[in-house]
Structure formats: C-alpha cells, structure tokens
Amino acid sequence: MTKKFNFIIxxxxxxxxxxxxxSTRITTNFANLARGNNRQENLRxxxxxxxxxxxxxxxxxxxxxxxxxxxxxIVTVEMSVDADSNEDAFPLIEILKTNIVDRxxxxxxxxxxxxxxxxxxxxxxxxxxxxxxxxDQPTFSLPENFGELHGKLFKCFVNSSVYKENFTKAPIxxxxxxxxxxxxxxxxxxxxxxxxxxxxEFSSTDQYFEKMGLQVRxxxxxxxxxxxxxxxxxxxxxxxxxxxxxxxxxxxxTFQKIYRPExxxxxxxxxxxxxxxLKHADYSLTQIVYDREERSRMATKQGKFAEEHFIKPxxxxxxxxxxxYAH
Length: 327
What we know:
alpha+beta, 10-stranded mixed beta sheet, 10 helices, globular
C-alpha cells in the first residue's frame, strides 16, 4: 500500500522585523537579506522597493503613487512521511504569499502564492545528483527521471486539501531568465506583464519545472531591464487579476535587482534579441547588502542535508510512492 503524505503549512511575516527561523534555508533570498549588521536596513529598503514598484505599475487612480502597499508572508511547507505523526516532518519547500493593502479603500486584497521558490530537494537534484552524473562526461546531460520525485511531491502538495484550504488560486513562480539562453521579443504585449519574449530552447530549469506541472512564459514588464520567467499552470493572462500579477512582479523583480543586478538593474533595457549575462558591467547596485557567493556555496551543503535527512532515510518509501503517484 502506497504511503499517504501529510503536509503542514507554517507562515511568518516578511517585514523589517523578520528573523529567519532555524528551519529556513540560509540560501533563500529573503533569509540572506535578514542577517548581519545591515539586517533591518536591508529589509526596510527591499520592502520600500517592492511598494514603489507596485505603485509604478498600478498607476491608475493612483495620482501620488502611494495608494498600495504589499504585505508578504513566508510560507514553509513541511512534509511528514507518516500521515499519523508530524514528528518526522521535513521542510520540503518555501514560497511567498503576497497580499495587497489598498490605502484608499482600506481593503486588503489577496495576492499570489508562489513567487520565490526554495527547495531542499531541488538543491539535492542540482547540487548533488547533476554534478555526480556529469562527472568525467564529455557532454552535459540530464539523468533519466531527473526531477521526477521533486515534481510529483510539488504536484501532490498543490493538489492537497491543505493547499486548497489555504490558497484560492494555483501558484506562480517567478524566476530569472537563464544566462545560457537567447530570448527574442515578440509583438505580444500585456499592459502589466509587458512584452513577451520567446527563448531559443528550454533550459534545465524549464524542464525541471515542467515536471512540477508548470509551463513557462517570459515577459518584460514596463520599465524593466530584462524579461522574467513566469512558471504557472492554467492561463497566466486570464486566471489572475492585474493587481495580483503586479504583486508578483514587484516582489520578485526587487529580489532580482538585489542579487542579479547585472541583469535586472542594468542601465539599459533588453533589446529585441537578448541574452542575459552576469558579466555585464553597465549596471547599478541597490542600497542593499547581499552575499551572492555564500548563496552559491550553501546550495551544495543544503543538498547534502536533503540527502541525509530525507532522500536516504525514506528512499524505499519515496521510490514506491513516486512509482504509483497518478497525477
């Protein structure tokens, strides 16, 4: 009989008083900002950037550019292999939930869940499995079934009663465009998402997220420097309101400006044909301290954590469950 997994959702506000919990992945963008001597100034500046960007995009009936504020919750999803006990719960993923405060009406509007995506198992796949598989190989390739377990775990969560009790719409994950791919601007223009771009081929991240049941489209919002990758199920353009989409753009573009300024805080916009580059020199730095080297270094460490505390101890259970998972 296949195991039934149990999901537990925990939330904490991402505000200027935020302190990462012991179970939060250190490489998570928002956790990285919330440490060190500049912790509170970092958080305050990042939140101000998000609000300013939101109001710039939601400019209608907003003459002073200060009508809206964005509230952010960090959502930690823990998974228990034993559905009758949460004692062995593993921190499976972390995502963000946005809410929008309309200062003019006093209304609090639900935003989008997803946005950032952080996963120990993804760290394991990309930092442990992939390098090991490609060691001493003449050409880079993906292992058979690469990302299938992770994809099924994600789909199991999104289809669970726990997800549906807490969130009303399917998630959108918003990430950086790949620096190894080339993007071409199309004539398709959305008033909030901006110009759509098409990539020359799918990246390994695109393929990985496809295993999670998510397709990708690339858009460069008005006055952005580069296109963003939007991973979603359903219809990106019709399933969400403009304010919901703006909450994701303003939040995730801010993070990208902080930790990929060469691309998203470049001093010139992407052209009709565009290849992102972290070697691009003409860009501006934000007033926010961010340790990008530590983030890369820690991914391997946290991949090993997933291997030791989740993949190896539950190997037989996970393999049997994955083989029988129907969705």
